[in-house]
Amino acid sequence: MLVDLKPAGKAIPRMKKSMILQAGPPVEWQRTCGPLRGAVYGALMYEELAESPEEAEELIKNDEIMFAPCHEYNSVGPMAGVISASMPVFVVENKENGNFSYANMNEGLGKVLRFGAYSKDVIRHLKWMEKELGPSLELAIKRSDGINLKTIISQALHMGDECHNRNVAATSLFERKIMPHLIETNLEAKVTSRIVKFLEENDHFFLNLSMAACKAMMDVAQGIKNCTLVTAMSRNGTEFGIKVSGLGDNWFTAPAPTPKGLYFPGYGPTDANPDMGDSSITETRGIGGFAMATAPAIVKLVGGTPADAVSYTKEMMNITASKDYSFTIPSLNFEGTPLGIDLVKVIDTGILPIINTGIAHRKPGIGQIGAGIVRAPMECFKKALKALVEKA
Amino acid sequence: MLVDLKPAGKAIPRMKKSMILQAGPPVEWQRTCGPLRGAVYGALMYEELAESPEEAEELIKNDEIMFAPCHEYNSVGPMAGVISASMPVFVVENKENGNFSYANMNEGLGKVLRFGAYSKDVIRHLKWMEKELGPSLELAIKRSDGINLKTIISQALHMGDECHNRNVAATSLFERKIMPHLIETNLEAKVTSRIVKFLEENDHFFLNLSMAACKAMMDVAQGIKNCTLVTAMSRNGTEFGIKVSGLGDNWFTAPAPTPKGLYFPGYGPTDANPDMGDSSITETRGIGGFAMATAPAIVKLVGGTPADAVSYTKEMMNITASKDYSFTIPSLNFEGTPLGIDLVKVIDTGILPIINTGIAHRKPGIGQIGAGIVRAPMECFKKALKALVEKA
Questions:
Q1: Quick check: B139 contacting A, CB < 8 Å?
Q2: What is the CATH number of the domain that holds A328?
């Protein structure tokens, strides 16, 4: 349930002003990729801690900024996944288990922080999200009894979304749900107008909510003794990392692979950064690439054929623990989506989890250049298995 | 393109205060079905021409009311399809050909006029649509440059709608498109609030727009010499009628069949009225039942399996003139939807057009009791063929 929206510094426990949360497993600054660097420059300028990328670099070299993975703060962010203290974050509550998760708000497409852009326009837009969009939606969310995200995901899977790289149905359903509450807050008409236009133009607005919902669900599975369930898959643009329920807080990492996909005009594979983002929490939960059979139209974005989309979903059933009948696939006779990656099954079958993903330019400051598909690297799973054997 | 919304009396050429438009081919009052009678009672009370069903009957017996099919006034209405002069109607323009079509607004589900209900609540709701919803949306539509309905249908077919009995995606997309314009009209907050809540709760709001768009497209095909294309299929709850391009304004009719489908709790086939409504203009245009392959989740509403849904679409390709690549089916590798029923192919193959439909109680005043599937009767096509042969 989406229950609140407030600045990360107030919402996320242990979050500090001098802290930057980032996607994926931890990574030393020297090894960070271009788009993550760009996003960090942008966040430090947005927080008015630096006035330029050079000043940002200086701060970082002087150890004045603390970096941490979003995942270790019950949070998730797509692509660079950069969350700083002033950014509004969605607060999602797992009502059954009482735990919370957090995600930043989706900025839209084009030159945006999460793809490594940090121009003045990018920062101005983030300020608008902080000063106007965030507080307005906060009021609307508070007027609701909470918005049930699981219901929206379930419906959207019947409407051609897989809720990772295709979110047009979920975004539309969310907007219909929030709109009556937003209107009731009685904002100035020009404020409502700007918000409604922003939501109208952003078919991916729900992505971050889908991610937060999946995080709130997966965190419950963390820390079960001897349990081989994968509870997180995430990438920082340098490394791909997984977490496993029975293996504590350890990340098992390998070099991040580069997605195969479709590029925007003027760009190609040599421009692509290796894979990045916490958004693969959706596949970890069994939607996104795992539910691609529900979203045949997505192949126009990520490549391949509708038959491939169905094959991926069926293939993933070989490495998952169960099927999820709260998220069903109409075209497969309402079969449940593949639920919960089992480390042992990945090793046994050699089948690697499939992930739908966006592609960032490898240089800071540019942004998104395409979208595609990537497989989690086998090395992560082998390292985790080794740790499991050693622990036993 | 949706270009306007105003009272039928002002929008529809030749519409008069003492006139009632109705779905399907013409039918004498003595032969009208229960739900159409109920809707006419409701409309006459709504227009304050009668104060009770008895007064309404009196007016009709005294020939004070003129009845005509919507179709003969470039209009369409779902189920009873009753349109009276004060009801706001959508004005849809076929920009390429310059012709206009009209449809009433969708009232929502439950006890509604189009299913034959006529209680005080039904009439109060119609008054609200006339006094508040209509004029507000009229302002919003006028602020837009027109809303492209074909684009919305095309997108919605990639989102699990077939735009006849499943409209949740199209409704959501339409609402996102209209909302910025609605906000800019600067209505009182409580007015906007009521409108937004109504739209939030009505997943079928787009149905009437889908119908008007199909009507605007099909009317262009009417009146082509020797052309065997079916330009309208419609039902009044007593008879099913078709029109054929090369056969002028004639209706070719047969008794309306009763749908097979799923019933709301407490109702069954013996309560069902024979099929009714102009909504089969969607199938005539090649969506609705013809595009069921895009909407596998609809079988939960109308019955059958997702495999049946795909079969229906493939079957319809045997009786259609062409495929429509503006309306494609992702799961069938972006195949075009079957476009344009050819009378000769229906006769040759014996395959009858499939229609997704709602089911009304056969008595006036009750309302919807289910949804299902129906086939157009062969007799209509045989009569049309005979007329064609006689004419040649």
A1: no
A2: 3.90.1700.10
Report the gap between the CA of B111 and the closest CA in chain A (Å). 23
In this structure, are B128 and B267 located in the same domain? no
* Structural domain ending residue among the three candidates A211, A232, A249: A211
**Cα of B159 to nearest chain A Cα, Å:** 4
When divided into structural domains, chain B yields a total of 2
Verdict on whether the full-model pTM lies above 0.90 = yes
Residue entry with tokens 């099927």 = A323
Q: Helix %, strand %, coil % for chain B, to 5?
A: 45, 25, 35
Q: What is the mean pLDDT of chain B?
A: 96
Same structural domain, B189 and B298: no
For B122, B194, B329, the CA distances from B171, given in Å and listed in that order, are 22, 17, 19
Cβ–Cβ contact A192 with B under 8 A: yes
**With contact defined as beta carbons under 8 Å apart, do A272 and A147 qualify?**
no
Hey, is the C-beta of B177 within 8 angstroms of any chain A C-beta? yes
Nearest to A169 among B169, B192, B200 (CB): B169
Residue span of the structural domain in which A37 resides: 2-211
Query: The domain that contains B136 carries what CATH number?
Result: 3.90.1710.10
Residues A194 and A225 in one domain: no
**Same domain as B352, residue B247:** yes
Question: ipTM of this predicted complex?
Answer: 0.92
**Is residue B1 a part of any domain in this protein?**
no
In this prediction, the residues of chain B whose per-residue pLDDT falls under 50 are: none
Buried-state track B347-357, b at ≥16 Cβ within 10 A, e below 16: beeebbbbbbb
What percent helix, strand, coil does chain A show, rounded to 5? 45, 25, 35
| A127, pLDDT greater than 90 | yes
Q: Given phi > 0 = left and psi -120 to 50 = alpha, else beta, which region is A209?
A: alpha
In whole angstroms, what is the distance from residue B11 CA to residue B92 CA? 11
* % of chain B exceeding 70 in pLDDT: 100
Neighbours of A26 (CB within 10 A): 15
A54 to A51, A62, A81, A83, A363: CA distances (angstroms): 8, 12, 21, 20, 16
Between B109 and A113, name the one with better pLDDT: A113
Last residue of a domain, one of A211, A240, A270: A211
